[in-house]
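Worked example

This section walks through a single chain of length 218. The input is the sequence exactly as stored; nothing has been trimmed or padded.
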Amino acid sequence: MSNGERRRERLRRAHLYLVIDAEVDGRPSDAVVEAALRGGVDLVQLREKERADEEIVASGRRLRALCDEHDALLVVNDRPDLALACGADAVHVGQDDEAIAAVRRTVGDELLIGVSTHSPEQVAAALESDVDYFAVGPVHATPTKPGRPAVGLELVRHAAAVAGERPFFAIGGIDTGNVADVAAAGAERVAVVRAIRDAGDPRAVAAELRAALVPAHV
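Given that input, the structure is written out below as tokens.
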């Protein structure tokens, strides 16, 4: 089995995806990430848009080591070149980033590609493309995506109906209080930011989120 095939198999088994910056409250996010991994996070996305490339790579390599300890996938946001430099498993792009075909040419077949979607039309485009997974959201309004209107559970239901075997993650304002509703709408996988990042006990919150997703789909 190739590295790409192993990554895709791990993606199919995944349920919980953490998106996080290089720092939390002025300190490296490593401790939060490690606790979240112990709680059951399957993918960690390093999302950095402002830092210098060398800082992003340094942070990415630290998170790479943590993900390896817990058999989790490391994702880098927006930048295929930095994903390769970090030794990441995947790169995640938005609708305004580089075209999927160009990203694939950069990263080859071994790395996974994910894309954000916000409408049925974007979901359809994702399914017609070479992405390995897509994200649907924001399900609820969230300060991490200012100005982006919430899509609600209807787009989650739509994605669940049309995705087939392609993995997708619901994202946006999901926490322990509403994850059951998101799962009931058809999402077997969710991505979170604040729910884990801002938690007093990231490990416990990750475990609770995962527990809401896994029992109905094991």
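What to look for: The chain has a mean pLDDT of 95.
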